[in-house]
Each structure stands twice: as structure tokens, then as C-alpha cells.
Amino acid sequence: MNANNLFDLxxxxxxxxxxxxxxxESIAKLLAQNGAEVIVSSRKQDSVQEVADEIKKQGYKAEAxxxxxxxxxxxAQLVQNIGTKYGRLDIIVNNAATNxxxxxxxxxxxxxxDKIMEVNVKGCFQLAKEALPLLKKNKxxxxxxxxxxxxxxxxxxxxxxxxxxxxxxxxxKVMAKEWGAYGIRANVICxxxxxxxxxxxxxxxxxxxxxxxxxxxxxxxxxxxxIAGLTLFLASDAAAYSTGGVFVADGGMLI
Length: 255
Ligand SMILES: NC(=O)c1ccc[n+]([C@@H]2O[C@H](COP(=O)([O-])OP(=O)(O)OC[C@H]3O[C@@H](n4cnc5c(N)ncnc54)[C@H](OP(=O)(O)O)[C@@H]3O)[C@@H](O)[C@H]2O)c1
Hints:
alpha/beta, Rossmann fold, binds NADP nicotinamide-adenine-dinucleotide phosphate
């Protein structure tokens, strides 16, 4: 522990999924700027290579490793590659997610249901479970799962996505409870509306954004950096006593 800077991640290895853009990219950059060696991951090698190169150009440490969070073999391969290259893993940010449908639950197909659960829940479970031997090594690991305010209160048109995000909250609590004995902390973040490609249909909708700007106590739409700061806190020794926590960053949306 660096008593002078509780946010210092020097010497720690972090993997961030869904890190080629949006919230994940911002998290990968901030963790690297605070000393971590960051594995930038998403499905497309070109996109993660671009982000890793940008981080390295700024003088920080990063590596690009593509993986599909809905493909369990791809996740196992990612963990194997991390083990071979670094021999340790201290921080997992399960940030990648998918939502292939928008509309009512009665119109959600079984295929869409399965896809949402595969990426948003099963993939997060698989990454953490496969990586468990690496996480156990240094008795100071941190898992951060990216849920949503939709995991606390159902989002209109995003019913099964909301179900997946609630499952992720419980998965986090279970991990925190069972893996505390290994020195592993697990926490979950629930962002509100954040300006990224994922949520474009919402923040580009004038009715939605006007309503939010009027109703939110913090009268603006969130930015990826608003989530990155909280992730850094949870990854670091500043959050040494926080585990199983549900951290909302929504500008006050749920009040
Ligand atoms: N934006 C919001 O308003 C908001 C609100 C609440 C919660 N969240 C949560 O925040 C997280 C990040 O969202 P975002 O808004 O930053 O999204 P984004 O800008 O669309 O980025 C999504 C990232 O995930 C990757 N990805 C997508 N499917 C993947 C898969 N199957 N396997 C691996 N990587 C995959 C994408 O890259 P590739 O295409 O290269 O794979 C990309 O890097 C998600 O968990 C989302 O549910 C977002």
C-alpha cells in the first residue's frame, strides 16, 4: 500500500472489457495513468490495439487482447494469455455488455434473452472464475462489475437488459461474500445515462435529454470519466474496506 497515494496502482495488472470505446476506454486510460498495467479488451483487435497504443504513447503501460465476452472459450483464452504474459491479475473490470433489442418483454425473443445473459452475466462470471487462481495470488484483488440503474429499477424498453444487470448485482455480492477469504473485493457500479454509443438513442432523443436536464439534481448527462473515477476508487486501496457494495453514479436519477 502507498500511504501517500491510496489511488496508486503501480505494479498491479488490470483487465478492462469493453475498453475500445465509451466507459471502458475511459476506465482503461485512468487506471493506466494511475500506474496499472492495463489489458485493453473488446471483440475487435484493431480497436483495442488503437486504445492500447494511445495509452503507451502517453508513457503508460497497456496491452491489447481481444476477447468476446459471450464466448466462454475466448474468455478462457484471454485469461491464459494474461497468465502467460503477467503471471498475475489484480483488477478485473467487467464492463462489456450488450443489448440487441429495445421494446417490451413480451416481444423479446429467446435468442435475444440468451445473448443478453451470455454477455452481461455469464461472461462476467466466466472471466472472474477463470481468473480466480491469478486473483488469489496477491491477496489484494478487486473485481468491479458494470451494472446499471436499470439493475435497480427497470428501464422502459430495456426489460431483459435490466434483468441481466440485476443478476450482475447479485453475482457481485456472492463473489464478495465467497471470495473475501482470498483477499478479493467485489463491487458493482450502476451508472445512469452516460454519453456513449451504447446509449446514443436516449441522449440524442430531445424529449429524453430535456426531461433529464430538468429533473436531475446534477443537471447534465453523465460522461465516461464520471464512471472512470469511481472505478479507480474501487480498484485501489482507497476502497480497502468496500466490498459487496452497489455504487450508483447517476446524477441523482434514482432519488
Ligand atoms: N452508456 C450508458 O448510458 C450506460 C448506462 C448504464 C450502464 N452502462 C453500462 O456500461 C457499460 C459500458 O457501456 P458503454 O456505454 O461504454 O458502451 P459502448 O460505448 O457502446 O462500448 C461498449 C464496449 O463493449 C465492447 N463489446 C460489446 N460487445 C462485446 C462482447 N460481446 N465482448 C466483448 N466486448 C464487447 C465494445 O467493443 P467491440 O465492438 O470492439 O467489442 C465496446 O468497447 C455496459 O456494461 C453498459 O451496460 C452504460
